[in-house]
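Let's see one such:

===
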Amino acid sequence: MFDKVLVANRGEIAVRVMRACDELGIGTVAVYSEADKHSGHVRYADEAYNVGPARAADSYLDQEAIIETAQQADADAIHPGYGFLAENADFARKVEAADGVTWIGPAGDAMEKLGEKTKARNIMQDADVPIVPGTTDPVTEPEEVVEFGEENGFPIAIKAEGGGGGRGMKIVHSADEAEEQLESAKREGEAYFSNDSVYLERYLENPRHIEVQIIADHEGNVRHLGERDCSLQRRHQKVIEEGPSAALSDELREKIGEAARRGVRAADYYNAGTVEFLVEEDPERGPDEVLGPDANFYFLEVNTRIQVEHCVTEEITDIDIVKWQIRVAQDERLSFDQDDVDIEGHAMEFRINAENAAEDFAPANSGELEVYDPPGGIGVRMDDALRQGDELVTDYDSMIAKLIVSGSDREEVIERGKRALAEFDIEGFPTVIPFHRLMLTDEEFVNSTHTTKYLDETLEKSRIEDAQERWGTVTESAGDDEDEEVVEREFTVEVNGKRFDVDLEEHGAPPIDVGDVDTSGGGNRPDRSGGGGGSGDGGGGSSVEGQEVTAEMQGTILEVSVDEGDEIAAGDVLCVLEAMKMENDIVAERGGVVKDVAIGEGDSVDMGDLLFVIGSE
């Protein structure tokens, strides 16, 4: 058994992995950025090391820093969690080659074969797994997109090779959109996955999103642990996941599960993974009917890592997937056969995001957990890394926790979910809890007749607004705490990059002056006080005179279209800002000359951050 595992991630998934390690008697090492120095996964770990500033590229995505930290801490394995470097084949190979460190995950070569979509499609096709009609080679020219659309019919999907969760996917409804959407998909692929290669697929109009959890060992034994239904999505991002699917017959789910096993075995894949499928929904299907064995299903992609929603499968199989990841990495053989996998009852996972669903799911820009009181009781599981009083870290994903509810059947889970969500008390910033409560009363969702398009195309926005008004909590911090007789202070000391915490209580005395300490953890943020590095006067603007263009939402700069000194006209695109899976063109409100450019490609920005200064011609 490993002695010590470094978890190359943050938040709830880092804590989830550490808990599995604790139960196996394995020590744990956390890594953290400046923004996360007080985060829950840092508190939970046996040891913690700072790996860089807030910007993910300089910390959680710094491959050399992660491996060097593992060696410095004498960790003998690295678990990547999900996101960040979890599906980076190059990183997996570097860990595999590192002296004394084991990679807890599939081999880098297998990750590459299944992680790049065209390679995966070829493997699945050879393994007799149905695939969506599309290209098996990358496309580079708009003419190829038009030709495919004319052959297969519009709309079609352009997808990034390394994409997932809707990133790097663009829908082309007509030949006129081909060039623009191709460039957009390539740009997102390069920005998020360092790979601008894209391919084409026929775009299914009314699909369900069904995925199969698999686990495989080094001896070629592959088991599937049943399916999850992830059809409730917003802009291709999963919102509520459940298992088993209420829409599938037993015959159809068995066909899909066996197809997943065939494909994974053909790729010489081991460790945990998820094979995702699109299942064509029957628009005439009633709430008491299921899709039969003749329903069409198509391979979508393989996620070569643990999934956010793995908890659903754990609740209905009683199999600890993370522990099996660790055991397989140590060459243990799977101790159960496929016939031993029993699906019992039902489970749902609710992603608790710091977002206001009534405002187009806008993420919170700041806040403190004034109240954090999660639900409990039978059939209720919380995966989180929070405690009351924590500051909201906005540099990364907006998900702050996961609520998983299980029961004897779907009806019980829905009722238990209503109770648990009503108990869940979070104050200090908005969350999507009101939206989840709405969904558990929604006829389409309750009947399981919804598809991946339901939230984007059918659900009335006014119902979301009503839910937020009815069940939403306080979103602003009052900031008027009463004076305490006992002042508690926490100091963080780093020695050679390793974190140590020091707690101090001051009784009957004013707080100790600790001087000017930078606790912002802001990382690679645009300079709000001085524009593009100018001197500034601290007034929140730029030292350069002119009209300031600021970010209207939190996001990532994908492209900067102008340079200092450029002449522009009203309506010209200044930059492209990605937020909530959408590209947003930031345009000039008036003509003039670009006096200051305060951002660059890849920068993270908050609402109100300075982007440009436009002066008179």
Q: What stands out?
A: The mean pLDDT is 88.
